[in-house]
Amino acid sequence: MDSQYVKLKHQAAGHAGTLSDKDGILVFKPTVKQEIDFLKESQDRYYKDTITESTDQDSTEVLLGAWMPRYLGIIEEGDKKSSIDGSISSVYSIQRTKNEQPIVDSLVDFDTDEGNSSANDNVTMKDNNEKPFIVLENLLHGYSKPNIMDIKLGKILYDENASPEKKIRLQEVSDSTTSGSMGFRICGMKLQKNHLISTVSKDHFELDIIEHDGENIEYVFLNKLYGRTRTPENIQEAFELYFTNNDLTEKRKKQLITMFWQRLQLFYNTLLDEEIRLISSSLLFVYEGDPEHWDYNQDEDLLLKPDFIDKEVDSDDDDNGTVEKERKYSDVLSSMSLIDFAHSKFVPGEGYDVNIIEGVEALLKIFEEMLRQH
């Protein structure tokens, strides 16, 4: 297989430069050491505690790692000790257990095949200033028509290492947006075009056509200006816009709102048990907009996303070790994940993160009001 990597097809917000393999299973994102350290420690704690608690059937605790994308390792341009070819079978060629080291722990050259490249899609690592890339599960894998929202958490948007100029700039952003007034801000959305888009200023969105299985799907990308112009008075309208889908019934819309409300409750309890500081981390909301996928799953959804390793292994083998007939669709109709950890750290003995908690409390109130209205 040739080594082609493409820009992430669906992205609601975040820095440019996020890549995916051709099969859309993995994500490669420019990173820094602090993010790598936080992901490693979070994952180590999660799988250690998961093994410990697996015998406790009465445990209702949801650990931090359950909300995070699976960390698979780092790659960096220039070291050719190993390679990743975009095939999930090659990534999992080494048999492993959950609590072993990350699958990808070596450094590779990330060039693409120029002869087969598209100027818009195929990219190389050299386009990204030679930063190390972190390898994560693609949280959109398995969705046919994903609808995405990125919600940045916290009133404080900078850490102690930021320059004075950056602190001033980010404090101004917080003071002038719902980051300051509510503890969160919508950074962006990418959703299927719906009838409520006509109510949005043309400066706040652009249209995008995404091809899926031979079908051209009309998407709308709502930019950071949309999120920065939301207020406590109109913020609920933004969530109504996100959950409005011309292809889904009102019953399914209410199911989605209920599921995300329940996830926020569980996530809130998780945060109360964690001594961490999350600066500029986000909640990533995703739901399926394809009614055929809903029909196939008979509207059954999972409150927590399945473990990435278990999900991929189960898709290949049944309990007897034989190959199953491939499912047409994944088990997941929606998910909520915590992402972006470049400024995150553990702070033992300092208690939970009030900066993040307040934003989640505000989100819970919005969802409770939405449920009353639906």
From TrEMBL:
<dbReference type="GO" id="GO:0045944">
    <property type="term" value="P:positive regulation of transcription by RNA polymerase II"/>
</dbReference>
<dbReference type="GO" id="GO:0008440">
    <property type="term" value="F:inositol-1,4,5-trisphosphate 3-kinase activity"/>
</dbReference>
<protein>
    <recommendedName>
        <fullName>Kinase</fullName>
        <ecNumber>2.7.-.-</ecNumber>
    </recommendedName>
</protein>
<dbReference type="GO" id="GO:0016236">
    <property type="term" value="P:macroautophagy"/>
</dbReference>
<dbReference type="GO" id="GO:0005634">
    <property type="term" value="C:nucleus"/>
</dbReference>
<dbReference type="InterPro" id="IPR005522">
    <property type="entry name" value="IPK"/>
</dbReference>
<dbReference type="GO" id="GO:0000825">
    <property type="term" value="F:inositol-1,3,4,5-tetrakisphosphate 6-kinase activity"/>
</dbReference>
<dbReference type="GO" id="GO:0005737">
    <property type="term" value="C:cytoplasm"/>
</dbReference>
<dbReference type="GO" id="GO:0000821">
    <property type="term" value="P:regulation of arginine metabolic process"/>
</dbReference>
<dbReference type="GO" id="GO:0030674">
    <property type="term" value="F:protein-macromolecule adaptor activity"/>
</dbReference>
<dbReference type="GO" id="GO:0000122">
    <property type="term" value="P:negative regulation of transcription by RNA polymerase II"/>
</dbReference>
<dbReference type="GO" id="GO:0000823">
    <property type="term" value="F:inositol-1,4,5-trisphosphate 6-kinase activity"/>
</dbReference>
<dbReference type="GO" id="GO:0000827">
    <property type="term" value="F:inositol-1,3,4,5,6-pentakisphosphate kinase activity"/>
</dbReference>
<keyword id="KW-0418">Kinase</keyword>
<dbReference type="GO" id="GO:0032958">
    <property type="term" value="P:inositol phosphate biosynthetic process"/>
</dbReference>
<dbReference type="GO" id="GO:0000824">
    <property type="term" value="F:inositol-1,4,5,6-tetrakisphosphate 3-kinase activity"/>
</dbReference>
<dbReference type="Pfam" id="PF03770">
    <property type="entry name" value="IPK"/>
</dbReference>
<dbReference type="GO" id="GO:0016303">
    <property type="term" value="F:1-phosphatidylinositol-3-kinase activity"/>
</dbReference>
<keyword id="KW-0808">Transferase</keyword>
<comment type="similarity">
    <text>Belongs to the inositol phosphokinase (IPK) family.</text>
</comment>
<dbReference type="GO" id="GO:0050821">
    <property type="term" value="P:protein stabilization"/>
</dbReference>
<dbReference type="InterPro" id="IPR038286">
    <property type="entry name" value="IPK_sf"/>
</dbReference>
